[in-house]
User: What shape does this take?
Amino acid sequence: MKYRCPYCKGIIEKLRAPKCPHCGRYMAINIPLLDKETARELGEKHRHRHRMLERIHKQYERQKQELSGALSPSVFRTPSFYLGVMFVMAIAGALLFNAVDNSVAAKRETRYQRAMRHVDILAEALGRYHFHVGHYPSDEQGLAALVRDPGEPRWNGPYISHLRADPWDTPFVYQWRSGAPPLLLSAGPDRQVGTDDDVAPDLQRFDPGTAWTNGWVSAEKRLPGVTILKHDPTTSAAD
Assistant: This one.
């Protein structure tokens, strides 16, 4: 069956849809006027779409009733409920651990801060060594004299538990100087002495004070967990 478009007057050999293939305009043609094959295809598409809309509407109504209805106590006894609780707890735990890690990382020392703390500790130990022995270690004795007795008669160490490298895995620099505290520093990240990134201690750290130094007890003689605060001449044992 042939058709003529009422707009462009074009001849249509076989009308598959109520739309002119020449001008693209829709024509007011009922489905029964189309050929049987085309009408059947259009009818099937219409019925399929109608069924899908009905299915979506029913699912929507069912979910709406479930959400608006009262929560049954039996829900708390289902495996899915416990799985949901475990999932929420796992997420909360992960967030808590992440917050703790961030807090710890914020308080963690940088390499510069650690180097400053270490050179200050070494300067204080050298100050106690000087108070007891009468002079600072020689270049040959070095910082090892703070850990092991170099043969000095009045040595009362060890003044530090062990000697370690700086945070950049470089030995601390030590050099004896006449009439002044020794040169003590960390060479910093470039591992070169005399550059701007060298880390030196506070010079006041070389003088720990007589109140603390008089009461110094070597590590080998200390009781576990006891800290010597000051010297008490009325007693022979530390508090």
